[in-house]
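Justification of resources, computational component.

The compute hours requested in this renewal are based largely on the per-chain cost of generating structure records like the one below. Each record pairs the submitted sequence with a full structure-token output. That output is archived, and it is also reused by downstream analysis tasks.
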Amino acid sequence: MIESNVKEILQKIARGNAFGEPVVLVAATKTRTAEEVQRAIDAGIVAVGENHVQELLEKYPHISGAERHFIGHLQTNKVKYLVGNVSLIHSADRDEVVCEISRRAVALGVVQDILIQINIGGEATKGGYSLEEGAEAFSRAASLPALRPVGYMAMLPAKKEDAELIPLIKKMRALFDETKKGRPHVRYLSMGMSGDWELCLGHGANMIRLGTAIFGEREKR
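The structure output for this chain reads:
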């Protein structure tokens, strides 16, 4: 099932997004075994993303052949486990975390790529900067040493109609387009999960994070 799911999704995204940009498919590996993750990589996945630092530390040493991303909420005391060990941190959602990533990267002598997380739906249950704060948050991060913000990440509110979601995606795309002017390294708008990824690609996202669509429903534990 994993192999056929990956093949089907890769075929769907092969032509790129609505802007003709290549699409990066990140397999969201929360609760999945190292064996399942490796099967997805062998089927063509080029990047995997974990939500929990402990799972990443336990699981990712046993997989090979794909970029490692961190896509979950990040506590400042866990930053030390990620900097220099993952290619991209999607969830730089507040100044405290951004500054800690920079500090750790300086200490290690590496440059860490991050995405600035935007709370596009203004939801109290989700982290991230407001849309209005996004550009300034990006500029602050870009001014810090050993830090390279390469785009934005956002999650759409659940259980809303497409007519309500499309304007939010378009606002994120507008922020992304404005930010990348004169910044060739800005290249990712990470937006789209198993329930809404096609809608997001249709309105400008170019990186999607899929778990259930690849691995199937999670078993209840």
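The domain at 2-14+21-215 is CATH 3.20.20.10 (TIM Barrel). The longest helix spans residues 162-179.
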